[in-house]
Amino acid sequence: MSELITSAIDFLNKIKLEKMVIVKFEKLDGTERTMTCTLDFSKIPREKHPKGVDLAKILKLINNSHILKVYDLEKQDWRSVPFDRVDYLITPSNKKSYRIKLK
Predict the structure, then answer these.
(1) Which of 9, 11, 22, 70 could form a disulfide with 37 if both were Cys (CB 3.0 to 4.6 A apart)?
(2) What predicted TM-score, i.e. pTM, was given to this entire model?
(3) How far apart are the C-alpha atoms of 71 and 81, rounded to whole Å?
(4) H-assigned helices in 1-71
(5) In this predicted model, what pLDDT tens digit does every residue of 24-75 receive, in sequence order?
(6) CATH number of the domain that 83 lies in?
(7) Residue 77 above 80 pLDDT?
(8) Terminal-residue alpha carbon distance, the chain
């Protein structure tokens, strides 16, 4: 498995394990974005739940665009996180901060 896919899976697992995380990353226009996000379906409104999971599509998005989809708790919608431009991820439950850099 490539390092890119492994890093993406680790990133997703941290978000899923913690239920809610704060992520800071650089947007394409160069500005910084801080997002409180989740992959915990109990925190996502039922009408926003995905209809299904297409693993091939997810892996293609990770591999080609370095993008992961997460649910933004402030915007109340799904957003893309360019995980190769993430500065850090904070887990509010235990106040741990993880630096994530693939560059």
Answers:
(1) 70
(2) 0.83
(3) 10
(4) 3-18, 55-65
(5) 999 989 999 999 999 999 999 999 998 888 888 888 888 898 899 999 999 9
(6) 2.30.30
(7) yes
(8) 18
